[in-house]
Request: fold
Amino acid sequence: CEISNIIINKMNHLHQLHQHHGIVSSSSLTSVTNANLSSMSIASSMVPHAGSPQHHQLHQQLQILQQQQQQQEKEVIYKWIQELNNSSTRESALLELSRKRDSIPDLAPLLWNSFGTVAALLQEIVQIYPCIHPPVLSAHQSNRVCHALALLQCVASHPETRARFLQASIPLYLYPFLHTSSRTRPFEYLRLTSLGVIGALVKADDREVITFLLHTEIIPLCLRIMETGSELSKTVATFILQKILLDETGLAYICQTYERFAHVGAILNKMVQFLSREMSARLLKPVVRCYTRLADNPRARQALVTTLPEALRDDTFQEVMQQDSSIRAWLQQLRNTLDPAGSQLQQQQQPNASAAAAVAAAVNNALPGSGLYSASS
Reply:
């Protein structure tokens, strides 16, 4: 009976899909449905035992229906992808595909390899450029382009399409959104979704991704959002910086000059000040990880001995550390790295200097000065 109910439910689901999307005629669907429901009623009355011929027949019917359902769902997905090329059907297709993107394993290759799809997604992005300066972006416009960005995030995160995504320099199309400063919800949503695409790239721990990003302005853009964005935007931007630092090339790049390290150090210091007022374990973790990674560089470690914020030296974040043991472990590692003897951090703190001045003074002594984020450096 249970198997019969499953098959009947599958048939009902297929019936709804066919009616909604009009893939086949209703007459052919009705004949198939009636035939299967007839066999289901017979099977239900017989209540077959496991291993019996009737039980085996029901399993076969269930497998056939599952295959039919999978094929039907694929046809619906193909239909939505085709509709992206039509301006009159694109908005609804964007909505449906973005909603179901996590349940479609091969969506990224389908999007990338289908004719005109990526161009259609980029068209959605560039057509709202005039709305960001001056900032007149509406909620509807923001939602629509964010659906397109969500699909690009699928492409960015998939191993089969990530490299081609970079080769086409698609992340650069998102940077105008990261340059915006309006605090209204449409713009905040737009920035956050754009950061999500970059976050999906760096999450793969692919050196090719880091190399690409280092030749763009992503670091100053992330630092700006870390300083002025919402808590969630700060968190994603800090995560991106963390992943760049965790790569040896990224760490060397940021610690190569006084200007770069001073900029990063000053923003991280401001983040700690913000967190001392607005406790957030979600945001504190990547901040501490950034400091811990910077301390792996000898010259940066020398500067951090005197510029590490006092809140990371004392018990300011004790409550958060009790809730998240990983933060406590990373912070303890940072303290041990900067002061193995456990006696010099407090003595070398500069209480009378501002955070920015302290960073500048210490880093100036530790690192050479030769420019900010130039691609050629």
